[in-house]
Fold this sequence. Notes:
- The complex is a heterodimer of chains A (about 180) and B (about 220).
- Chain A is built from 4 helices and 9 strands, in the order H-H-E-E-E-E-E-E-H-E-E-H-E.
- Chain A is α+β, with helices and mostly antiparallel strands.
- Chain B is α+β, with helices and mostly antiparallel strands and about 220 residues long.
- Residues about 5-10 of chain B have low confidence and may be disordered.
- At the A-B interface, helix 1, helix 2, strand 4, strand 5 and strand 8 of A face helix 2, helix 3, strand 3, strand 5 and strand 6 of B.
Amino acid sequence: MRLRPSRSTILVLAVLVLAVAGLAHGASLLILPWRSDHDAFARVAALTATTDRATLDPAGPDAPPFADPAMLTAVCRFDLRAKPFRLSLTPLADRFVTIGFHSRHGLAFYGLTVRAADATRFDLVLTDTPTARSEAEPDAGNVVVATPEPDGFVTLATPLGEGSNREAAEDRLNGVTCHGDTGP
Amino acid sequence: MNRQQPLFSIAAAPSRRSLDPSRWARGSLLTLAALGAVVLGIALGLMLTAAAVRSDAIGTRRIGPWRVFTDVGTPAIDPYLRARMALNGAVPLAAAQGLTAVAQRDSDGHGLDGRCSYRLSGTMPPAQFWTLEAANPAGRPFDNRAGRQSFASDDVLWDGSGQTVIALSPIATAGNWLPLPGSGPIAVVLRLYDTALTTGTAGREAAWPMIERLGCP
Protein backbone atom coordinates (compact mmCIF):
# COMPACT_ATOMS: atom_id res chain seq x y z
CA MET A 1 0.00 0.00 0.00
CA ARG A 2 1.56 3.28 -1.12
CA LEU A 3 0.35 6.34 0.84
CA ARG A 4 3.02 8.89 -0.02
CA PRO A 5 1.25 12.00 -1.39
CA SER A 6 2.13 13.12 -4.85
CA ARG A 7 3.66 16.52 -5.59
CA SER A 8 0.43 17.77 -7.05
CA THR A 9 -1.42 16.81 -3.85
CA ILE A 10 1.09 18.73 -1.74
CA LEU A 11 0.77 21.72 -4.06
CA VAL A 12 -3.02 21.67 -3.85
CA LEU A 13 -2.87 21.47 -0.04
CA ALA A 14 -0.39 24.37 0.12
CA VAL A 15 -2.64 26.49 -2.10
CA LEU A 16 -5.59 25.54 0.11
CA VAL A 17 -3.70 26.65 3.24
CA LEU A 18 -2.78 29.99 1.65
CA ALA A 19 -6.27 30.59 0.28
CA VAL A 20 -7.93 29.83 3.61
CA ALA A 21 -5.33 31.95 5.44
CA GLY A 22 -6.06 34.87 3.13
CA LEU A 23 -9.80 34.51 3.58
CA ALA A 24 -9.51 34.18 7.37
CA HIS A 25 -7.20 37.21 7.52
CA GLY A 26 -9.47 39.38 5.39
CA ALA A 27 -12.65 38.26 7.12
CA SER A 28 -11.26 38.74 10.64
CA LEU A 29 -10.00 42.19 9.70
CA LEU A 30 -13.40 43.25 8.39
CA ILE A 31 -15.35 41.63 11.22
CA LEU A 32 -13.26 43.10 14.08
CA PRO A 33 -14.80 46.61 13.99
CA TRP A 34 -18.27 45.04 14.06
CA ARG A 35 -17.66 42.55 16.85
CA SER A 36 -15.26 44.27 19.26
CA ASP A 37 -16.45 44.88 22.82
CA HIS A 38 -13.59 47.28 23.52
CA ASP A 39 -14.04 49.85 20.79
CA ALA A 40 -14.53 53.58 21.28
CA PHE A 41 -18.33 53.29 21.29
CA ALA A 42 -18.18 50.71 24.10
CA ARG A 43 -16.04 53.10 26.15
CA VAL A 44 -18.37 56.01 25.48
CA ALA A 45 -21.37 53.82 26.31
CA ALA A 46 -19.72 53.03 29.65
CA LEU A 47 -19.42 56.76 30.33
CA THR A 48 -22.92 57.67 29.24
CA ALA A 49 -24.98 54.69 30.33
CA THR A 50 -27.74 56.82 31.82
CA THR A 51 -27.33 60.20 30.15
CA ASP A 52 -26.79 61.34 26.62
CA ARG A 53 -23.81 63.45 27.48
CA ALA A 54 -20.80 63.06 29.75
CA THR A 55 -17.46 64.71 30.37
CA LEU A 56 -14.48 62.58 29.55
CA ASP A 57 -11.63 62.30 32.04
CA PRO A 58 -8.51 61.39 30.02
CA ALA A 59 -6.93 59.73 33.07
CA GLY A 60 -10.07 57.80 34.03
CA PRO A 61 -10.04 53.99 33.80
CA ASP A 62 -12.76 53.94 31.14
CA ALA A 63 -11.34 56.77 29.06
CA PRO A 64 -10.26 55.91 25.53
CA PRO A 65 -6.49 55.75 25.05
CA PHE A 66 -4.81 58.77 23.51
CA ALA A 67 -7.46 61.14 24.90
CA ASP A 68 -5.94 64.63 25.01
CA PRO A 69 -5.37 65.82 28.59
CA ALA A 70 -4.98 69.40 27.34
CA MET A 71 -8.59 69.47 26.12
CA LEU A 72 -11.85 69.48 28.02
CA THR A 73 -13.86 66.85 26.18
CA ALA A 74 -17.51 65.88 26.37
CA VAL A 75 -19.26 63.09 24.49
CA CYS A 76 -22.87 62.80 23.33
CA ARG A 77 -24.39 59.57 22.09
CA PHE A 78 -26.93 59.45 19.33
CA ASP A 79 -29.32 56.81 18.11
CA LEU A 80 -31.49 58.02 15.28
CA ARG A 81 -33.75 54.96 15.67
CA ALA A 82 -34.75 56.28 19.10
CA LYS A 83 -34.79 60.03 18.51
CA PRO A 84 -33.42 62.61 16.08
CA PHE A 85 -30.12 64.27 16.80
CA ARG A 86 -29.69 68.01 16.66
CA LEU A 87 -26.52 69.73 17.79
CA SER A 88 -26.87 73.44 18.49
CA LEU A 89 -23.98 75.80 18.91
CA THR A 90 -24.14 79.33 20.24
CA PRO A 91 -21.48 81.87 19.19
CA LEU A 92 -18.23 81.58 21.11
CA ALA A 93 -16.71 84.49 23.02
CA ASP A 94 -13.19 83.10 22.67
CA ARG A 95 -11.05 80.17 21.49
CA PHE A 96 -12.68 77.29 19.64
CA VAL A 97 -14.65 74.10 19.97
CA THR A 98 -13.79 71.13 17.80
CA ILE A 99 -16.47 68.54 17.11
CA GLY A 100 -16.04 65.01 15.78
CA PHE A 101 -18.76 62.62 14.64
CA HIS A 102 -18.16 58.88 14.96
CA SER A 103 -20.32 56.02 13.80
CA ARG A 104 -21.06 53.03 16.04
CA HIS A 105 -18.44 50.87 14.37
CA GLY A 106 -15.49 53.18 14.17
CA LEU A 107 -15.79 55.62 11.29
CA ALA A 108 -15.02 59.29 11.93
CA PHE A 109 -17.47 60.50 9.32
CA TYR A 110 -17.60 64.23 9.95
CA GLY A 111 -15.79 66.91 11.87
CA LEU A 112 -15.74 70.64 12.24
CA THR A 113 -13.95 73.28 14.23
CA VAL A 114 -15.91 76.34 15.32
CA ARG A 115 -13.79 79.37 16.08
CA ALA A 116 -14.71 82.49 18.01
CA ALA A 117 -14.62 84.35 14.69
CA ASP A 118 -17.52 82.19 13.42
CA ALA A 119 -19.96 84.35 15.31
CA THR A 120 -23.19 82.76 14.18
CA ARG A 121 -25.50 80.30 15.84
CA PHE A 122 -26.14 77.16 13.88
CA ASP A 123 -27.80 73.81 14.24
CA LEU A 124 -26.48 70.55 12.89
CA VAL A 125 -28.90 67.76 12.14
CA LEU A 126 -27.86 64.16 11.63
CA THR A 127 -29.75 62.00 9.21
CA ASP A 128 -29.40 58.43 8.01
CA THR A 129 -32.07 58.55 5.29
CA PRO A 130 -32.33 60.62 2.13
CA THR A 131 -35.97 61.43 2.97
CA ALA A 132 -35.05 62.98 6.30
CA ARG A 133 -32.31 64.93 4.56
CA SER A 134 -34.65 66.51 2.06
CA GLU A 135 -37.03 67.49 4.87
CA ALA A 136 -34.31 69.08 6.92
CA GLU A 137 -32.62 71.06 4.15
CA PRO A 138 -35.18 73.85 3.77
CA ASP A 139 -34.75 74.74 7.42
CA ALA A 140 -32.54 77.85 7.34
CA GLY A 141 -29.41 77.72 9.50
CA ASN A 142 -29.25 73.94 9.53
CA VAL A 143 -26.24 71.94 8.55
CA VAL A 144 -27.41 68.45 7.58
CA VAL A 145 -24.94 65.60 7.87
CA ALA A 146 -25.56 62.06 6.69
CA THR A 147 -24.35 59.36 9.06
CA PRO A 148 -23.32 55.92 7.76
CA GLU A 149 -24.94 54.23 10.76
CA PRO A 150 -27.98 55.24 12.83
CA ASP A 151 -26.05 55.23 16.09
CA GLY A 152 -22.74 56.57 17.26
CA PHE A 153 -21.34 59.41 19.31
CA VAL A 154 -20.09 62.96 19.04
CA THR A 155 -17.03 64.41 20.78
CA LEU A 156 -16.90 68.07 21.76
CA ALA A 157 -13.50 69.39 22.78
CA THR A 158 -12.07 72.76 23.66
CA PRO A 159 -8.68 73.86 25.03
CA LEU A 160 -8.68 73.35 28.77
CA GLY A 161 -6.19 76.03 29.73
CA GLU A 162 -4.94 76.17 33.28
CA GLY A 163 -6.51 77.15 36.61
CA SER A 164 -9.49 79.44 36.22
CA ASN A 165 -9.48 78.91 32.46
CA ARG A 166 -11.27 75.62 33.08
CA GLU A 167 -14.48 77.50 33.82
CA ALA A 168 -14.21 79.31 30.51
CA ALA A 169 -13.68 75.95 28.79
CA GLU A 170 -16.77 74.54 30.50
CA ASP A 171 -18.76 77.58 29.38
CA ARG A 172 -17.64 77.01 25.79
CA LEU A 173 -18.71 73.38 25.88
CA ASN A 174 -21.99 74.30 27.55
CA GLY A 175 -22.63 76.51 24.54
CA VAL A 176 -23.01 73.32 22.54
CA THR A 177 -26.14 71.30 23.14
CA CYS A 178 -26.91 67.79 21.98
CA HIS A 179 -30.61 66.89 21.65
CA GLY A 180 -31.41 70.20 23.35
CA ASP A 181 -29.71 69.21 26.62
CA THR A 182 -27.85 71.76 28.72
CA GLY A 183 -24.49 70.12 29.12
CA PRO A 184 -23.01 67.79 31.72
CA MET B 1 -23.06 -20.37 -16.32
CA ASN B 2 -20.62 -18.87 -18.73
CA ARG B 3 -23.18 -16.25 -19.70
CA GLN B 4 -23.58 -15.15 -16.07
CA GLN B 5 -19.89 -14.70 -15.44
CA PRO B 6 -19.53 -11.33 -17.14
CA LEU B 7 -22.64 -10.01 -15.41
CA PHE B 8 -21.29 -11.09 -12.06
CA SER B 9 -17.96 -9.43 -12.78
CA ILE B 10 -19.55 -6.11 -13.72
CA ALA B 11 -21.71 -6.08 -10.59
CA ALA B 12 -18.83 -7.01 -8.35
CA ALA B 13 -16.29 -4.55 -9.70
CA PRO B 14 -17.43 -1.39 -7.78
CA SER B 15 -17.73 -3.35 -4.61
CA ARG B 16 -14.17 -4.52 -4.91
CA ARG B 17 -12.98 -0.97 -5.51
CA SER B 18 -14.78 0.43 -2.46
CA LEU B 19 -13.32 -2.25 -0.30
CA ASP B 20 -9.83 -1.66 -1.63
CA PRO B 21 -7.97 -0.83 1.62
CA SER B 22 -5.28 1.32 0.00
CA ARG B 23 -7.84 3.45 -1.91
CA TRP B 24 -9.94 3.87 1.22
CA ALA B 25 -6.92 4.84 3.30
CA ARG B 26 -5.74 7.30 0.67
CA GLY B 27 -9.15 8.94 0.48
CA SER B 28 -9.38 9.27 4.25
CA LEU B 29 -5.90 10.70 4.44
CA LEU B 30 -6.69 13.22 1.75
CA THR B 31 -9.82 14.31 3.59
CA LEU B 32 -7.86 14.64 6.82
CA ALA B 33 -5.10 16.54 5.05
CA ALA B 34 -7.65 18.93 3.51
CA LEU B 35 -9.25 19.51 6.92
CA GLY B 36 -5.82 20.07 8.42
CA ALA B 37 -5.02 22.55 5.67
CA VAL B 38 -8.22 24.47 6.39
CA VAL B 39 -7.50 24.57 10.14
CA LEU B 40 -3.90 25.59 9.50
CA GLY B 41 -5.06 28.27 7.06
CA ILE B 42 -7.54 29.72 9.55
CA ALA B 43 -4.88 29.73 12.28
CA LEU B 44 -2.36 31.41 9.98
CA GLY B 45 -4.89 34.01 8.85
CA LEU B 46 -5.85 34.90 12.43
CA MET B 47 -2.20 35.04 13.51
CA LEU B 48 -1.51 37.37 10.61
CA THR B 49 -4.39 39.62 11.69
CA ALA B 50 -3.19 39.63 15.31
CA ALA B 51 0.34 40.55 14.24
CA ALA B 52 -0.81 43.20 11.77
CA VAL B 53 -3.10 45.07 14.19
CA ARG B 54 -0.31 45.17 16.80
CA SER B 55 2.03 46.98 14.45
CA ASP B 56 2.53 50.68 15.16
CA ALA B 57 3.28 51.35 11.52
CA ILE B 58 -0.11 50.50 10.05
CA GLY B 59 -2.14 53.35 8.63
CA THR B 60 0.53 55.93 9.43
CA ARG B 61 3.12 57.87 7.49
CA ARG B 62 6.58 58.36 8.92
CA ILE B 63 8.00 61.87 8.99
CA GLY B 64 11.24 62.10 10.99
CA PRO B 65 10.58 60.60 14.41
CA TRP B 66 6.81 61.04 13.96
CA ARG B 67 4.22 58.60 12.76
CA VAL B 68 1.39 60.71 11.39
CA PHE B 69 -2.09 59.21 11.40
CA THR B 70 -3.07 60.29 7.95
CA ASP B 71 -6.51 58.88 7.12
CA VAL B 72 -7.69 57.84 10.56
CA GLY B 73 -10.22 60.66 10.68
CA THR B 74 -11.91 59.86 7.38
CA PRO B 75 -14.26 57.13 6.17
CA ALA B 76 -11.32 55.99 4.01
CA ILE B 77 -9.47 54.78 7.11
CA ASP B 78 -7.02 51.94 6.54
CA PRO B 79 -8.85 48.68 7.44
CA TYR B 80 -5.89 47.51 9.52
CA LEU B 81 -5.94 50.72 11.53
CA ARG B 82 -9.71 50.52 11.92
CA ALA B 83 -9.38 46.98 13.29
CA ARG B 84 -6.60 48.10 15.62
CA MET B 85 -8.73 50.96 16.95
CA ALA B 86 -11.67 48.63 17.42
CA LEU B 87 -9.47 46.69 19.82
CA ASN B 88 -7.86 49.56 21.73
CA GLY B 89 -10.88 51.87 21.79
CA ALA B 90 -9.08 55.06 20.75
CA VAL B 91 -11.18 57.95 19.45
CA PRO B 92 -9.43 59.58 16.47
CA LEU B 93 -9.66 63.20 15.47
CA ALA B 94 -11.89 63.62 12.44
CA ALA B 95 -9.99 65.05 9.49
CA ALA B 96 -11.62 68.47 9.86
CA GLN B 97 -10.62 68.56 13.51
CA GLY B 98 -6.92 67.96 12.99
CA LEU B 99 -4.08 65.48 12.76
CA THR B 100 -2.38 63.32 15.37
CA ALA B 101 1.28 62.32 15.27
CA VAL B 102 2.98 59.93 17.68
CA ALA B 103 6.73 59.50 18.27
CA GLN B 104 8.05 56.42 20.00
CA ARG B 105 11.61 56.94 18.80
CA ASP B 106 13.93 59.92 18.83
CA SER B 107 15.32 61.48 15.66
CA ASP B 108 18.23 58.99 15.69
CA GLY B 109 15.87 56.03 15.85
CA HIS B 110 16.36 55.06 19.49
CA GLY B 111 13.25 54.12 21.45
CA LEU B 112 12.02 56.90 23.76
CA ASP B 113 12.77 56.00 27.37
CA GLY B 114 11.15 57.57 30.42
CA ARG B 115 14.52 57.60 32.26
CA CYS B 116 16.23 59.76 29.65
CA SER B 117 16.21 63.48 28.88
CA TYR B 118 15.23 64.76 25.45
CA ARG B 119 15.04 68.07 23.67
CA LEU B 120 12.16 68.61 21.28
CA SER B 121 12.91 71.56 19.05
CA GLY B 122 12.03 73.16 15.76
CA THR B 123 9.06 74.64 14.02
CA MET B 124 5.66 73.17 14.70
CA PRO B 125 3.50 72.36 11.66
CA PRO B 126 0.87 75.05 11.01
CA ALA B 127 -2.21 74.69 13.20
CA GLN B 128 -4.69 76.87 15.03
CA PHE B 129 -3.70 75.11 18.24
CA TRP B 130 -1.41 72.24 19.14
CA THR B 131 -0.85 70.09 22.18
CA LEU B 132 2.11 67.92 23.09
CA GLU B 133 1.74 65.09 25.58
CA ALA B 134 4.06 62.48 27.09
CA ALA B 135 2.14 59.24 27.57
CA ASN B 136 2.88 55.57 27.90
CA PRO B 137 2.90 53.55 24.66
CA ALA B 138 -0.72 52.52 25.27
CA GLY B 139 -1.76 56.18 25.22
CA ARG B 140 -2.33 56.69 28.94
CA PRO B 141 -1.06 59.84 30.66
CA PHE B 142 1.45 59.54 33.51
CA ASP B 143 0.91 60.79 37.01
CA ASN B 144 3.60 63.24 37.93
CA ARG B 145 4.24 65.46 40.90
CA ALA B 146 4.49 68.56 38.73
CA GLY B 147 0.92 67.95 37.59
CA ARG B 148 1.84 68.67 33.98
CA GLN B 149 0.92 66.06 31.43
CA SER B 150 1.00 68.18 28.32
CA PHE B 151 1.96 71.47 26.72
CA ALA B 152 -0.27 73.53 24.50
CA SER B 153 0.67 76.15 21.96
CA ASP B 154 -0.72 78.92 24.13
CA ASP B 155 1.19 78.06 27.29
CA VAL B 156 4.58 77.29 25.79
CA LEU B 157 7.42 79.80 26.08
CA TRP B 158 8.67 80.78 22.61
CA ASP B 159 12.15 81.85 21.74
CA GLY B 160 12.66 84.93 19.57
CA SER B 161 12.97 82.97 16.32
CA GLY B 162 9.57 81.33 16.47
CA GLN B 163 11.14 77.97 17.29
CA THR B 164 9.72 75.79 20.00
CA VAL B 165 12.05 74.14 22.50
CA ILE B 166 10.59 71.75 25.06
CA ALA B 167 12.60 69.65 27.50
CA LEU B 168 11.27 66.17 28.16
CA SER B 169 12.97 64.79 31.23
CA PRO B 170 12.33 63.14 34.60
CA ILE B 171 14.50 65.93 36.09
CA ALA B 172 12.97 69.39 36.56
CA THR B 173 14.29 71.73 33.90
CA ALA B 174 14.02 75.52 33.47
CA GLY B 175 11.81 76.73 30.65
CA ASN B 176 9.32 74.46 28.90
CA TRP B 177 9.54 71.21 30.82
CA LEU B 178 7.38 68.17 30.21
CA PRO B 179 8.01 65.66 33.01
CA LEU B 180 8.82 62.04 32.14
CA PRO B 181 8.01 59.17 34.50
CA GLY B 182 11.59 58.04 35.18
CA SER B 183 11.08 54.51 33.88
CA GLY B 184 9.75 52.51 30.97
CA PRO B 185 9.09 53.31 27.32
CA ILE B 186 7.14 56.43 26.46
CA ALA B 187 5.30 57.95 23.53
CA VAL B 188 5.17 61.64 22.65
CA VAL B 189 1.85 62.65 21.13
CA LEU B 190 1.51 65.81 19.03
CA ARG B 191 -2.01 66.89 18.10
CA LEU B 192 -2.54 69.62 15.54
CA TYR B 193 -6.01 71.11 15.82
CA ASP B 194 -7.60 72.95 12.94
CA THR B 195 -4.57 72.45 10.77
CA ALA B 196 -4.27 73.34 7.11
CA LEU B 197 -2.32 70.14 6.49
CA THR B 198 -4.36 67.80 4.41
CA THR B 199 -4.57 64.09 5.04
CA GLY B 200 -3.47 63.42 1.46
CA THR B 201 -0.02 64.91 1.81
CA ALA B 202 -0.03 64.24 5.55
CA GLY B 203 2.19 67.14 6.32
CA ARG B 204 5.24 66.12 4.32
CA GLU B 205 5.48 69.68 3.05
CA ALA B 206 5.61 71.08 6.59
CA ALA B 207 8.48 71.32 9.07
CA TRP B 208 8.18 68.96 12.02
CA PRO B 209 10.12 69.23 15.29
CA MET B 210 12.99 66.88 16.00
CA ILE B 211 13.57 64.93 19.20
CA GLU B 212 17.20 64.68 20.39
CA ARG B 213 18.34 62.50 23.22
CA LEU B 214 20.46 64.52 25.66
CA GLY B 215 21.36 61.74 28.05
CA CYS B 216 20.30 58.69 29.99
CA PRO B 217 21.24 57.67 33.56
